[in-house]
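Lab manual, section 2.4: Encoding a predicted structure.

Procedure: take the sequence of the chain (245 residues), apply the prediction step described in section 2.3, and record the output as structure tokens. A sample record is shown.
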Amino acid sequence: MDRLLQKLKKRGHDLVSLPYKKIEFTKNEESDNLLNDLERYPHAFVIGCLMDRQIRANRAWLIPYKIKKILNGFKIQDLYQLKLSDVREIFKKNAFHRLNEDMAKIFYLAIEKIQHKYNGNASEIWENNPSSATIVRKFLEFHGSGPKISTMAANTLYRDFKIPMKDCYSIDISPDRHVDRVFKRIGFAHKNDKRETIIYIARDLNPKYPGIFDLSCYEIGANWCKPKNPICGNCYLFQLCPRHI
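Recorded output:
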């Protein structure tokens, strides 16, 4: 089990150590260009994070780009001019989300907070080498953002965008269906453990950076450790995994 843990941690660190490469949030080139442009449109990334719930991720992350096309721009100053009724109408008319009423309010209040608290520059959330706890806390302050979205945002900034932070203690794992399945099959978690329990298991296994397991376990779950007919022989953990299937 210790060898399995070390191998999984090594894969996680290898993924973190890769140089920055444009993140494919949606696999739509123009949309991904917007979401990756933290210099001019850092608020697009924040909005994408807040939209990412209860629908497929690529559909949620497309919302900033779709609004940009409707408004013919995505400058924070222009978004700030929108009334809540305007945002609700845009979401309702275009059926962006299964929770259009809620997401319109979340979008509107996020723009308000970025404009008022961060001087219209969302990158102030992660500037000046903050602690991971600071970034998670700042995301939690957005209406509609919970621990899962906030830690996912912090992990994406650190792991993928290479944003420097003082530590990674508060970057938890985000146990989606793939991570949940892998943790249980390799024996880190029990069959009936809740996803909240998996968060604490990851903290116990790697206190300095619990989220190190996030992408490596997602990778295994999405590519090989499938719900049915897993392709165990292709997985790099094959020789060590107890395969609790």
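Check your result against the sample. The first helix runs from residue 2 to 17.
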